[in-house]
Amino acid sequence: MKAFFEGIQYLFVDILLTPLDFLRSLELSSWFAANTINWIFMIICTAAMVYWIKQLRIFDQAGTEGQDTTAHSFLK
Question: Where does the sequence pass through the membrane (predicted)?
């Protein structure tokens, strides 16, 4: 049983998380490069929010959005 958990430890620590170790060591020379993953997630979230707001505006201008309180049965 111990070998099973050591195998999981080896998989995550020595194989899957190696790129994150590289980014951690990169922090001493370049903070922006070390936070590359964060920048990518912020760009993805910003693009998703812009798309969502654009879709909300399209439905609002078309008048198809139900904003009355009877739109959901539990609000009656």
Answer: 31-53
CA 49 to chain CA mean position, Å:
12
Global pTM reads 0.62
What does the alpha-carbon distance between residue 47 and residue 2 come to, in Å, rounded to a whole number?
A: 45
Query: Where do the structural domains in the chain lie, given as residue ranges?
Result: 2-64
Q: How far apart are CA 13 and CA 37, in angstroms?
A: 18
56: which residues sit within 8 A by CB, 6+ positions away?
A: 65
Residue 57 exposure: Cα atoms within 13 Å on the Cβ side = 6
Residues 6+ apart with CB under 8 A from 32: 39
30 vs 17: CA distance, rounded Å? 20
* 44: its two tokens: 């993805």
What are the tens digits of pLDDT across the range 17-26?
998 888 888 8
